[in-house]
Specification:
Blueprint: H1 5-8, H2 11-14, H3 18-33, H4 44-53, H5 59-71, H6 77-82, H7 85-91, H8 98-120, H9 126-134, H10 141-151, H11 161-169, H12 178-188, H13 193-209
Helix pairs in contact: 3-13, 4-5, 4-8, 4-10, 7-8, 9-10, 11-13
Bound molecules: iron/sulfur cluster.
């Protein structure tokens, strides 16, 4: 029996089938980095706080701010919602933009008190909760979706700058608006929460270690998935 033509084609040609393609990407990254067990945090609230504090900074700086809140025993929505932003800001100084982030944390805490129990109770649907989070001061799509995916285990794919860079360099989609990239993953991946959570983490690891502004393709586990005529 003749082998199927696809078996003879190089990976760059086989990758035209998007489901296979994304599975290959994920398997390569997971084999390289291992499962990431994201997101770090001792509770859903801590995860949500981390999603605010990590905006425009790295995780180390955000983590130090969380630790400072813990040491003061201020890391609860009940405390933060009644605290004044001026007291909160210096405690989270290490995360940068601390005056703005103090206000964002207070807005998030108010949202949390109104809605967190209702999400867990299965009220409404995911799009409803996403819209309600996007209406909170200082919460954009990446932050809202991180909170929904990691703090509430909702099936929504998180997109960030690393995701955009990878998709662009591998020419996987032409529309790199947030919603189009998110829809691309959600259309092509099976509805698997652990896959959504870990795939995003794998992309972040790739962006940090290999797919930097100056890409390190030679050492990258995705090297042979690059489009054939890529100029990278
Ligand atoms: S570093 Fe190169 S091979 Fe790796 S993801 Fe980026 S563009 Fe692809």
């Amino acid at each position: 029996m003749q082998p199927h033509l696809g078996c003879l084609l190089p990976v760059q040609v086989q990758q035209r089938h998007p489901v296979t393609e994304l599975s290959v990407y994920y398997e390569r990254l997971r084999a390289h980095f291992g499962h990431q067990n994201w997101w770090p945090g001792d509770s859903p609230w801590e995860i949500a706080v981390g999603a605010i504090l990590v905006q425009n900074t790295n995780w180390e700086n955000a983590s130090r701010a969380i630790q400072a809140l813990k040491e003061k025993e201020w890391l609860s929505p009940e405390y933060i919602v009644q605290a004044d932003a001026e007291s909160l800001a210096p405690v989270i100084r290490t995360s940068g933009y601390f005056n703005q982030k103090a206000k964002k944390l207070k807005a998030l805490a108010a949202w949390w008190q109104a809605y967190a129990m209702r999400i867990r109770a299965g009220e409404q649907d995911l799009r409803f909760w996403r819209q309600s989070l996007l209406a909170v001061k200082g919460i954009g799509p990446e932050t809202s979706d991180s909170i929904l995916l990691y703090a509430f285990d909702q099936l929504i794919f998180v997109v960030d700058a690393y995701t955009r860079r990878l998709l662009e360099r591998h020419q996987l989609t032409t529309d790199t608006s947030y919603e189009a990239m998110q829809a691309f993953f959600e259309r092509k991946l099976p509805a698997d929460l652990d896959l959504y959570q870990d795939f995003h983490a794998q992309i972040v690891m790739t962006g940090k270690h290999f797919c930097r502004p100056k890409p390190q393709c030679e050492a990258c586990p995705l090297r042979d998935l690059l489009p054939r005529k890529s100029s990278l």
